């Protein structure tokens, strides 16, 4: 799946991660930020992972969102290859020890190779963060993010009114 001239690359270790990663896709569609989606496995397709990360900046991508579960090495390995910012999404896989394996594999990076790690299964926040990064140089995306936040505020104020009255 890909939109016109993608700015954000969404990758995941397995097709089984897609139900979680779909939240990133949905929020980027909502914010009208172009993206592409691929399955790239650090362990099962290491050469494909290397080629993807190595070519990402040259192809025009600005941010990579990488989701993986279990021994979740994909975000960190991609971050080791490209200079682009990488946002890691720890995915709670079915045989996972409550997702801690995914979280710690992505979070505990060595000095020099950061991965911006969101909460377990928090692909929506990864999408929003990626949009915020590209909005630094794109005022139209920035305006849509401001509207997105205003909508969140409105919803909380509405629920506060409902609870209080
Ligand atoms: C990881 O192993 C994937 O990111 C996925 O979260 C997990 C399970 O993959 P499958 O066995 O379902 O392909 O590499």
From TrEMBL:
Coiled-coil ranges (or none): none
Keyword Isomerase: yes
Entry GO MF terms: 5-(carboxyamino)imidazole ribonucleotide mutase activity; phosphoribosylaminoimidazole carboxylase activity
Gene3D superfamilies: 3.40.50.1970
SUPFAM superfamilies: N5-CAIR mutase (phosphoribosylaminoimidazole carboxylase, PurE) (SSF52255)
Origin: domain of life: Bacteria
Ranges of residues in domain PurE: 6-156
Pfam families hit by this protein: AIRC (PF00731)
The protein's name: N5-carboxyaminoimidazole ribonucleotide mutase
Record organism: Sphingobacterium populi
């Amino acid at each position: 799946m890909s939109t016109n001239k993608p700015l954000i690359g969404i990758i995941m270790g397995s097709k089984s991660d897609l139900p979680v990663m779909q939240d990133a896709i949905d929020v980027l569609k909502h914010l009208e930020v172009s993206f592409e989606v691929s399955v790239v496995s650090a362990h099962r397709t290491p050469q494909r992972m290397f080629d993807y990360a190595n070519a990402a900046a040259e192809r025009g991508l600005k941010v990579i969102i990488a989701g993986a579960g279990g021994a979740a090495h994909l975000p960190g390995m991609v971050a080791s290859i490209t200079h682009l910012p990488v946002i890691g999404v720890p995915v709670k896989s079915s045989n996972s020890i409550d997702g801690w394996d995914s979280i710690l594999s992505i979070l505990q990076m060595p000095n020099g190779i950061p991965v911006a790690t969101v909460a377990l299964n928090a692909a929506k926040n990864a999408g929003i963060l990626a949009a915020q990064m590209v909005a630094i140089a794109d005022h139209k995306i920035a305006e849509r993010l401001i509207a997105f936040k205003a909508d969140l505020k409105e919803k909380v104020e509405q629920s506060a009114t409902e609870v209080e009255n």
